[in-house]
Automatic annotation (TrEMBL):
Its main location: other. Keywords: Isomerase, Peroxisome. This is Enoyl-CoA hydratase/carnithine racemase. The lineage of its organism: Bacteria, Pseudomonadati, Pseudomonadota, Betaproteobacteria, Burkholderiales. It comes from Paraburkholderia unamae. CDD domains: crotonase-like.
Length: 245
């Protein structure tokens, strides 16, 4: 059985690879749980200094797997556990993005400390297009990163944008040729892993101290609105029409 998440450690870097290619790396409950486990393992491993998340050269993630059932019973919410786990990281998180990074594939990037994108990367927050609303703190982080109007245009029109636009709006740090992306991101992660551990952790904590305050509560507020809309007749009809295409 193919593992939905691959995990390896080398030179102080935990490399976490989304690996559901049969579903375009879309994330279901199991994938969220495996990602949470990988992040927690890296956070608790004294040999790991930096986390690097990636997909493959042609796909980062298609976002939430809309064809999968999500657990909603109290006390077990894989997507919320994943969000809380990412938010709690004290070690730097670098993303290397190639191909499409849709929905939570884009909103996750607002929580990464550094993001490198391939020239073939595509981004999008298609929430209004499927009749739902933003998630993963993006209602705060997108305007904070890009400015209100650019964030509003991206979210309200739900249009896909390319790597150069992502660079201009502050979502990514650098755009690279696709064939160079993973080696470059790995080199940068390994360089960061050689920096003094305590000062790196404190710098990250200070950078996030105000902007990310109350983020866990925002996750829950956004997710409530997201799931309420997802259960609406309008959203259900839109999603059902995708399955017929």
């Amino acid at each position: 059985m193919q593992l939905p998440v691959l995990y390896s450690v080398s030179n102080g870097v935990a490399e976490i690879e989304i690996n559901r290619r049969e579903r375009k790396n879309a994330l279901d409950d199991n994938a969220y749980a495996r990602l949470s486990e990988a992040f927690t393992q890296a956070e608790n491993d004294p040999e790991v200094r930096v986390l690097l998340i990636r997909g493959q050269a042609d796909i980062f993630t298609a976002g939430k797997d809309l064809k999968s059932e999500s657990a909603t019973h109290e006390g077990y919410r894989p997507v919320l556990i994943f969000m809380d786990t990412v938010n709690a990281l004290t070690k730097p998180l670098i993303a290397a993005v190639a191909g499409p990074a849709m929905g939570i594939g884009t909103t996750l990037l607002y929580h990464c400390d550094v993001v490198y994108a391939a020239a073939n990367a595509k981004f999008g927050m298609p929430f209004t297009k499927i009749g739902v609303s933003p998630e993963f703190g993006s209602s705060r982080l997108a305007p904070m990163t890009a400015g209100y109007r650019l964030a509003a245009e991206a979210m309200l029109f739900a249009e896909t944008f390319d790597a150069e636009h992502a660079l201009r709006t502050g979502l990514v740090n650098r755009v690279l040729p696709t064939e160079q992306l993973f080696s470059y991101a790995r080199e940068r992660a390994e360089k960061l892993a050689t920096m003094p551990k305590a000062s790196v952790a404190k710098t990250k904590a200070l950078l996030k101290s105000h902007a990310f305050e109350g983020m866990n509560a925002l996750f829950r507020s956004e997710l409530y609105e997201f799931e309420t809309l997802l259960d609406s007749a309008e959203s259900k009809a839109i999603i059902a029409s995708f399955g017929k295409k």
